[in-house]
């Protein structure tokens, strides 16, 4: 669909259009009857059926009526290995450790958000035609979805969303910091409405998910994490790339039935957000212990958790994860890479003795890892002042660099020159010290 066609839809969605040869034709049926009362008695929501599979209610606002669908899920309901209510039982300290959110982040007062839009590229011409909200309420996790039946109804939809999120203080999304929430903020501003939850703590699960699983899984889309982390498989799901076209087709024809699958897609996304938050929160809260389903984290997950903790400055937790990852085995990382991480974490934690022990063990066992020679040389140069040992270790490092250079065409030469420069500097320093 080109830009001209999109602009025509934005300007006159559902109106009569001329055929390609300019001949008039009958107006396409509107997806709802504007003459029909839009609210019930005393401004109460009015039950409304858009089509089979899209039964909800019209919610009155000061800007008109918004079409809302709602589903309620017991906290004991499972999506993946844990019940939906599991995040509520986790310590509050879990969330800042997982996603760099402010300490006042409260999962009980968080709204889970996901949108379906008229374009995957964003921009001021992109509408959020379906906005899904999830939140904990009593013994249920509630999913509310607002569907834009026609473009003029957008302000009413935004007003209803604003009223729904008013009690909440935090956000949980998946790639929402980059796409969903900025898009909604733009739509609020274009409607001359102040965006709600401005500056609220925002937990975007995409970023810790990438740190935890990108190396092992490759793709970290929400659907891939559903399959590989939660063990959930969708049947007959609507591909995200097809969703904008389905909405434009609805605007042309007034037939909303193909969009029932889109609404279900969005509902499952919200449920998966809650389930993924619980799963990731559990991993952070107790990485070494068994999960409630009795399983232990694999070595790969522990290694990546260690990296996550190290990035947060939680060195004791990082060290515990790295150590246990060695015990359980990590298929996605070499032993040398794991030992590098472990020894450098010891070094950052000022536990030099443990780091030195790892470097000495690696030097004794040989291999083509260069860093243990260099780090031991630095240790003896700057800590023990044994320049002779530092020089000998650097000479051995040069031999390793020569082997690596013969095996790798790219980067080996620069690495060799760097070690050679270090060796020459140490020799000059040793000569000066002996005078």
Written description of the protein model:
This protein has 15 helices and 8 strands. The model is unreliable at 10-30 (pLDDT under 50). Strands 1-2-3-6-5-4-7-8 form an 8-stranded mixed beta sheet, with helices on both faces. The chain has 435 residues and is of the alpha+beta class. Helix 11 runs antiparallel to helix 12 and helix 14 (387-407) packs antiparallel against helix 15. The protein has 2 domains: 28-285, Ribonuclease H-like superfamily/Ribonuclease H (Nucleotidyltransferase, domain 5, 2-Layer Sandwich), CATH 3.30.420.10; 299-434, Alpha Horseshoe (Serine Threonine Protein Phosphatase 5, Tetratricopeptide repeat). Strand 1 (46-51) and strand 2 form a beta hairpin.
Structural key phrases:
Nucleotidyltransferase, domain 5; 2 domains; elongated; about 425 residues; RNaseH-like_sf; 15 helices
């Amino acid at each position: 669909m080109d830009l001209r066609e999109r602009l025509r839809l934005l300007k006159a969605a559902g109106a009569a259009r001329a055929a390609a040869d300019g001949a008039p034709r009958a107006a396409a049926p509107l997806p709802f009857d504007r003459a029909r009362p839009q609210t019930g008695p005393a401004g109460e929501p009015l039950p409304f059926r858009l089509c089979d599979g899209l039964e909800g209610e019209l919610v009155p606002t000061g800007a008109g009526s918004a079409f809302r669908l709602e589903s309620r899920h017991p906290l004991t309901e499972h999506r993946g290995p844990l019940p939906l209510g599991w995040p509520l039982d986790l310590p509050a300290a879990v969330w800042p450790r997982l996603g760099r959110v402010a300490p006042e982040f409260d999962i009980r007062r968080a709204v889970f958000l996901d949108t379906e839009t008229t374009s995957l590229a964003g921009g001021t011409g992109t509408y959020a035609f379906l906005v899904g909200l999830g939140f904990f309420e009593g013994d249920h996790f509630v999913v509310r979805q607002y569907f834009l039946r026609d473009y003029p109804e957008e302000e009413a939809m935004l007003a209803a969303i604003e009223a729904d999120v008013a009690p909440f203080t935090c956000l949980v999304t998946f790639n929402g910091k980059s796409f969903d929430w900025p898009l909604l903020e733009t739509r609020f501003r274009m409607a001359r409405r102040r965006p709600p939850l401005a500056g609220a703590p925002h937990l975007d699960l995409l970023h810790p998910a990438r740190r935890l699983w990108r190396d092992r899984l490759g793709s970290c889309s929400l659907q891939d994490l559903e399959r590989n982390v939660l063990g959930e498989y969708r049947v007959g799901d609507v591909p995200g790339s097809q969703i904008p076209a389905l909405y434009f087709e609805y605007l042309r024809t007034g037939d909303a039935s193909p969009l029932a699958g889109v609404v279900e897609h969005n509902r499952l996304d919200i449920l998966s957000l809650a389930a993924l938050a619980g799963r990731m929160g559990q991993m952070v809260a107790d990485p070494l212990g068994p999960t409630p389903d009795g399983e232990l984290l694999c070595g790969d997950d522990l290694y990546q958790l260690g990296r996550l903790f190290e990035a947060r400055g939680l060195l004791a937790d990082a060290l515990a994860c790295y150590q246990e990852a060695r015990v359980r085995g990590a298929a996605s990382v070499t032993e040398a890479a794991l030992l590098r991480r472990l020894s450098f974490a010891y070094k950052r934690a000022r536990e030099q003795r443990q780091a030195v022990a790892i470097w000495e063990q690696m030097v004794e066992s040989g291999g083509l890892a260069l860093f243990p020679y260099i780090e031991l040389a630095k240790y003896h140069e700057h800590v023990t002042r044994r320049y002779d040992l530092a020089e000998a270790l650097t000479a051995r490092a040069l031999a390793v660099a020569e082997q690596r250079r013969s095996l790798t065409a790219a980067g080996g030469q620069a690495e060799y020159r760097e070690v050679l420069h270090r060796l020459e500097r140490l020799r000059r320093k040793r000569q000066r010290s002996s005078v």
